[in-house]
Design brief:
Length: 359
């Protein structure tokens, strides 16, 4: 049984570079150039509509929560506000980080900065981190965003449903960056010229949090923190739930997103919160396709992909047994079955990258 070292500076990272798994050539479903060019066209309208809905709902829910405070009747408003703050902002951070949500660059950047603050993810650090995730998706020692490692740390995953470890780590790094320091793994993928931006953002955030805490103390109430800060904890569950579905239980160290990513059909409310990232195989194959075109992309290439899970519950029916089995047998994974219309997995490509003879 293989013991995995997920550190970006460990032996598995060096092995990935040596065997050609790092920055490798990935499999892509063939899509006619003209059709792909049309799918990649960006538009402001869908994202402007969704952003107005998101921030309008957040303002309304926060207003209700404040008006009903401290009555228990305020709880539903806060719970809904928390999901928009601590989960919908995760998908907004993601899509605007790719620069595909809006056609207008400053709109992408504005929403990206706000979403990064809500999720406590330094926008400079995470832009580079997520670029690495797409370059080396679920490659052990290279991908800094692997959620369900092997063996899976189930208690850690459980705590993150309440945002506890992720948020605390984010605040810790915020203070570290504000003091002018980077962690060793951050230094591995952030260019030297970008580091002053990391520190500047962190210092602005510290000022915002300090002002919020001062206001809470002056009011002798946690109400200001219910608006800024705490929703990252009590609203995290949805983004963790959907995030686990992306890759958990599937293959690692392979060069085909059909093997290591999962597409799931989900309900319309969750799709709004998640911004269509449930089409995750499609997104990883073609990350420059805007979120609102992913359903269309899915229809064009589904003949070449594993059958999607039919619901969130259906996804977890296969994920949970796989994670439990990985506790005992680290090398176990779910291999996705392809339809008869699909091109086969390129076993030769994987074997070449791993330095073993193809069968």
């Amino acid at each position: 049984m293989t013991k995995r070292d997920y550190s970006l500076l460990g032996p598995d990272a060096a092995r990935a570079v040596k065997t050609g798994l790092a920055t490798a050539q990935w499999y892509h479903t063939e899509v006619p150039r003209k059709e792909m060019k049309a799918l990649m066209q960006r538009s402001d309208q869908p994202a402007v509509r969704d952003t107005i809905l998101l921030f309008g709902a957040m303002i309304l829910l926060a207003g209700l929560g404040i008006a009903l405070w401290p009555s228990p009747w305020s709880a539903p408003a806060w719970l809904a506000y928390g999901v928009l703050y601590g989960s919908a902002m995760d998908s907004r951070w993601h899509e605007c980080g790719h620069g595909t949500a809006f056609k207008t660059p400053w709109m992408n950047n504005a929403v990206y900065q706000i979403a990064s603050f809500c999720m406590v993810r330094n926008p400079v650090v995470w832009r580079w981190s997520h670029a690495r995730h797409h370059t080396d998706t679920i490659i052990v020692g290279r991908d800094p965003e692997i959620v369900a490692m092997r063996p899976p740390a189930l208690f850690r995953i459980f705590l993150n449903f309440f945002g506890i470890l992720d948020a605390l780590t984010g605040w810790k790094h915020m203070l570290q960056n504000a003091a002018g320091h980077l962690g060793p793994e951050e230094a591995d993928f952030i260019p030297e010229q970008e580091r002053p931006k990391v520190f500047r953002v962190a210092r602005i955030w510290v000022l915002i949090y300090a002002a919020t805490i001062v206001l809470a103390v002056a009011m002798q109430s946690i109400l200001p923190l219910m608006v800024i800060g705490l929703p990252r904890l009590y609203g995290a569950w949805h983004h963790v739930m959907t995030g686990i579905m992306q890759h958990a239980g599937l293959a690692d160290n392979v060069l085909d997103h059909r093997l290591n990513s999962r597409t799931v059909y989900i309900n319309p409310v969750s799709r709004f919160v998640y911004w269509n990232m449930n089409y995750h195989v499609e997104h990883h194959m073609f990350p420059m396709v805007p979120y609102h075109r992913l359903p269309e992309l899915h229809e064009k290439i589904k003949h070449d992909l594993p059958a999607p899970n039919t619901s969130i519950l259906d996804a977890y029916r296969e994920i949970w047994p796989a994670l439990k089995r990985q506790l005992r047998y680290e090398d176990y994974f779910l291999k996705r079955e392809l339809p008869g219309t699909a091109r086969p997995y390129r076993e030769d490509l994987h074997a070449e990258a791993l330095g073993v003879p193809a069968e």
